[in-house]
Amino acid sequence: MVSRTSPRIVPAAFLPAALAPDQARVTYIGHSTFLIESPRQVRVATDYNDYVKPTVVPDIATMNRAHSTHYTLSPDPGIRHVLHGWRDDGKPAGHDVSYQDVHVRSIATNIRDWAGGTARHGNSIFVIEVGTLCIAHLGHLHHTLTPQQVSEIGRVDVVLVPVDGSYTLDLDGMVEVLQALKAPLMIPMHYFSRYTLDRFLERVKADYEIELAETPTVVLSKTTLPAKPKFLVLPGR
């Protein structure tokens, strides 16, 4: 299941703190929260919440409202851009924000509500452009993507993908989404135990290479992306 060859992705621990113009630093904080850092030191925190958060205040915080581990109603006042993945009027969030060398936009998806129905546009896939990379955070995705949504997302280099297989999309559906997006690198998130992570990896190991990283942080660029699509498992902090 785990690649034994030399990794194409270089752990950040062996690199200097400064990033080259084509690089991005990605740190898995835990659950669905990542800290993404740009060459100009802009920080983006995904699914920013009150429980699992980075040790630094981000410049941009994205959120989704599936439950309280994906958002907060009391974000740190130092955050420049707080991007909710939903709107109270049920319309798409429609974010399109640029700050220094980072661009963040959102693509709306539906979400199951607590009554068993569907909340239209209740979740957002956030696409973060940083360095030369395009990173998609799928949020709390509950359904496969339409051709229009795939087109709106566009070409992505890295997908941050929920792999629990129950609270979000089922395993076969999530694999279908990943096949549609065709990203070279996928990083699992939103798993509640080693069992749920291993269940997903068992599902995909026949078709994808899998690498288990030793540190939660990785520095990425176009030149370090794998030649064949692979999963990189980052340990949460």
From TrEMBL:
Cited InterPro entries: RibonucZ/Hydroxyglut_hydro (IPR036866)
Q: Name the domain of life this protein comes from.
A: Bacteria
Read off the Pfam families from this record. Lactamase_B_3 (PF13483)
Q: Which PANTHER family match?
A: UPF0173 METAL-DEPENDENT HYDROLASE YTKL
Q: What is this protein called?
A: Zn-dependent hydrolase
Species this protein is from: Rhodoplanes elegans
